[in-house]
Design a protein that fits this description.
The chain has helices at residues 6-11, 45-56, 88-100, 118-121, 141-161, 175-180, 194-211, 231-244, 273-276, 294-302, 312-316, 320-326, 338-343, 348-357, and strands at 28-30, 61-68, 104-110, 125-127, 136-138, 165-169, 217-222, 249-253, 284-288, 307-310. With 363 residues, the chain is α/β, with parallel strands linked by helices. It has one domain (6-332): TIM Barrel, CATH 3.20.20.70. α3 (88-100) links the parallel β2 (61-68) and β3 (104-110).
Length: 363
């Protein structure tokens, strides 16, 4: 078990104030988790129950799965959608349910890019560049501008639905991350140089901030590894975004919050430390990756994070924050039988996904 102080353990229960909107009740946020529970993009009863139970279980902030902002952006079966007003009734119900359970809510905005699935969307797979191996074609400059507008419209819909905020998904090799990658050699203003590769993200963030209210929370998810982005560029982008005043929090998805970087030139520090030392203005910094206990979470705070995002723990225990805060010795135990997940409000579609795609998770 990681060694940490009782003072830092206690800090996990302290509310987190943000520059805009309501404070989060503690330093535990629910990570955005693919769950396949909303066919046709419309909120299902299973996905509603799954998320509201996590708010009831004490997560300071509850985030949805990645919700696609364009028809062409869908990457998973049963993925929540936000690209049309037809989805507003379900989203409104969900935001109200999370709020009634005492949680702060965020809708994650997503476009799969070359990782989208034309069998689900019925339209072309689009990406920064033509990629025949992925059956993907390059977006035109005008189409890039349309996708930017789709992200902004998704944020506006989320606010209309009653969510406290949105998180822009710029991580894990999806469309924004594809634009950020050095592989993006487009010849227009959205590719080539580091400045140009960032342009799409900056236009989304500025547009979301301009189109939503003064108390609406805006977050951004980035990942510094496993998506082809050099650590130096990831750090520089994180520094600029934190200082911009456009976001309220930066969610760094590290895959493993306790690891060294893969890049030999930067192994002087742990990966988390390459971001925790950045000036952050009024923004907050969160980290995600294999955080399975209160001491794990406290260790992240000791190494400079303001909050942690819980993924596997939120699946295994709807009340992970309560269990972790009550018992510093509490740790995740897996695999678990199907009956355990059913008691934790994991619906049958999600359970099948866990059983077939998550190693050693369901016994």
């Amino acid at each position: 078990m990681r060694q940490t102080s009782s003072k830092t353990l206690a800090a996990l229960a302290v509310p987190l104030d943000l520059a805009r909107g309501p404070a989060w009740g503690n330093r535990f946020a629910m990570a955005p988790l693919t769950n396949h529970q909303s066919p046709e993009g419309t909120l299902s009863d299973d996905e509603y129950t799954w998320l509201v139970r996590r708010a009831e279980g004490g997560f300071g902030m509850v985030m949805t799965c990645a919700a696609h902002v364009s028809r062409a952006g869908q990457a998973f079966p049963g993925q929540l959608a936000v690209w049309d007003d037809a989805f507003l009734p379900g989203l409104t119900r969900l935001a109200a349910g999370i709020a009634a359970a005492g949680g702060v809510s965020a809708l994650q905005l997503h476009h799969g890019g070359r990782r989208s699935d034309t069998r689900l969307t019925g339209v072309d797979v689009v990406a920064p560049l033509d990629e025949p191996a992925k059956n993907a074609r390059a977006l035109t400059t005008g189409e890039v501008e349309e996708v930017i507008a789709d992200f902004i419209a998704g944020a506006v819909r989320a606010e209309r639905a009653g969510f406290h905020g949105v998180e822009v998904h710029g991580a894990h090799g999806y469309l924004i991350c594809q634009f950020l990658s050095p592989r993006n050699t487009r010849a227009d203003r959205y590719g080539g140089s580091f400045e140009n590769r960032q342009r799409m993200l900056w236009e989304i963030l500025r547009g979301v901030r301009a189109a939503t209210g003064p108390d609406f929370q805006v977050g951004l998810r980035l990942t510094p590894e496993r998506s082809g982005i050099p650590l130096a560029e990831a750090r520089a982008l994180a520094a600029d975004v934190l200082a911009s005043g456009l976001i309220d929090y930066l969610d760094m998805s590290l895959w493993d919050a306790f690891k060294e970087t893969y890049e030999d030139a930067h192994r002087d520090r742990l990966l988390i430390e390459h971001f925790a030392d950045l000036p952050r203005g009024n923004a907050r910094l969160g980290v995600a990756g294999k955080i399975g206990s209160a001491p794990d979470a406290a260790w992240c705070l000791e190494h400079g994070a303001d909050f942690v995002l819980i993924g596997a723990g939120a699946v295994l225990h709807h009340d992970f924050p309560v269990l972790a805060l009550a018992d510093p010795g509490f740790r995740l135990v897996q695999p678990r039988p199907r009956e355990h997940f059913e008691r934790e409000a994991v619906g049958p579609l999600f359970l099948e996904y866990l059983a077939t795609q998550w190693n050693d998770f369901v016994s």
